[in-house]
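Quick one - first record:
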Amino acid sequence: MSEVTHPRDEVPGVREAGGAAAKPAAPAEAAGAPEAAPAPERLSLSGPSRDAADAERPGARRPSFVFFAAVAAFCLLADVLSKAWAEVELTRRSPLDPLVLIEGHLNFALAYNRGGAWGLLQNASETLRRPFFLVVSVAAIAFIVSLYGKLLPGQRALRWGLPLVLGGALGNLADRVTRGSVVDFIDYRGDWVEGMNRLIANVVNGWHVTDHWPTFNVADISICVGVGLMAVDMLTSGRRSLERAPEGESRVESASRPAA
């Protein structure tokens, strides 16, 4: 009988072992090349650099200046209209006869503040007071607009806080330009105000202890809420940075660990 040659026997690198056919060896293994090291795991970014990377993702949108202008305009309009109402309605009343909303706590009483918060520079000369507040207001507005243009998509608190501050600043600035003083009409009293003033009086000699909060307006409310949101953004952004640090460290360690 003649010997029959199977086609598989003619393929180089194929040999029989225990009746099973072995696959051809890979060129790298045949040449004795070392095994390629696994690709390191991608490092995660932390802190502001990660936020910047998130802003470059497809679909990520920065806060809109249309939204910024709309919120600021709403605050400005609410402030202007409320002050116009106060000047018309409250001038009909005697200073000793305020419009009572909550007995002993909340009234509407017309007042004019020639200075800043808590009467700052109220007794200063007009040549000093008006230029000072105009320069401070314009600088604050320029800073707010510039900062808003640098916001990242995740900064939601600042997205609301900055236009609120801008609307309030514009409202009080309009008063200083047109009247030379700011219209205030919201009058509040509270026991916690008296307690706070007593604590300050223990540190500051001559501090006047009263339960009366300085009279304010809608613009002041807008500014305070906006500043509060700015503080929230500062606290949450610092917390996010602390939370991302361990994650970044663990991934660095994972990338540097040799493959088993």
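second record:
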Amino acid sequence: MWKGRFRQAPSSLLKSYSESVSFDWRLYRQDIRGSIAHARALQKAGILRPDEFGEIERTLRTIKEEIDDGRFVFDPELEDVHMNIEAELTRRIGGTGAKLHTARSRNDQIALDLRLYLRDETEVLRGAIVSFQKALVDLAERHVNAHAPGYTHLQRAQPIFIAHHLLAYVEMAARDSDRLRDCAARLDQMPLGAGAIAGSTIVLDREAVARELGFSAVAQNSIDAVSDRDFACELLSALAILGMHLSRLSEDVVLWSSAEFGYLELSDRHTTGSSLMPQKKNPDVAELTRGKTGRLYGNLISLLTTMKGLPLAYNRDMQEDKEAIFDSVDTAKAALQIFAEMMEGARFREDVMARAAADPNLLATDLADRLVIAGVPFRQAHEIVGKLVSLAAERNVSLDELDPEEFMDAAPVLTPQVVREVFRVDNALAARRAPGAPSSVNIAQRLAYWKGVLA
């Protein structure tokens, strides 16, 4: 493509070092879509005759079908997906194919392809998030009355419905989807026509190309259009945050499915065994997802590091963006899909969780709240109940097993009837009626809300 300037062929080492078709071939759909739109603009500008445009369009569509079917062979000697497709087009239709690159550079061509690719994949990812959310909502609905300890610092804190815990991840996933939607809004600028850096003296109808490709705006600065990748950094950031949420859920799954907790049973289809220990049933999906989150972080840092010192405009360093982008998109999609499937096949052991939630210490705060309702300042109520917890620990009994007189001595309002009412988990959960709190009424409303949204 640049043989006119050079007297020697490129080194074979340079060819293998610089080729990108081994991974950027997957942009072929976007590349062909963009090339057809560009050819139409060339026809409108009088560079191509109608019959030449028709020949280019038909041949490009045939090439796409061959790639779809796996019949097209990409040649590393031609460096990238763009040159492979253009060279094959020219081989088939001759000089007409050589006109296609008029008023276009590989710089604005790849910027276009990446934006089209990420716009397409953003919608696929958001769909995968919906499936993941549906799986969590369905699991929550199947165990809507099951309660368990809630944890802070990985220590038992207060009783919750397990559905409330699962719905927390549904809320996080909604924000993940919103971030991807926001990324898509900033992807929505058409860079084609920016050329290598300064456009072209052959002026094409960029607005018409943008409309054909589904963009709502045209990039207004040719340097910015070809040299920036902030849209890709933003998407990798959104996927890293999504990975963080999946990793936290993975940690919950690992803990819940352990013998020490015993709250969750995963299906055989989503667990593995041990090559040595026949009794093992390992939560590998969760562990792999937790591990793959590091890849999502690494890809973001990789691209940010690549871009941070580059002068304007395009630099070949930017070829390194694609593998990070492809890997993060593939990793996030796979994690969402397998997690949704795993959650569909999972079930909670409600009896085990109920026994754990029956720990009276989980209701120590409720006991302090009763003192507050009776007029005791909270800090004082906190101290009173703390001393009762300490006394029960010294005697190696549960908090509700202290003598009624000891509650009365600590605070006269703590009558036997009050203490009995406080130490009922169902009373405690029903009392949590504030918006966002885990009462059964609130959870039912939120489940109904999410079922409607996700439908």
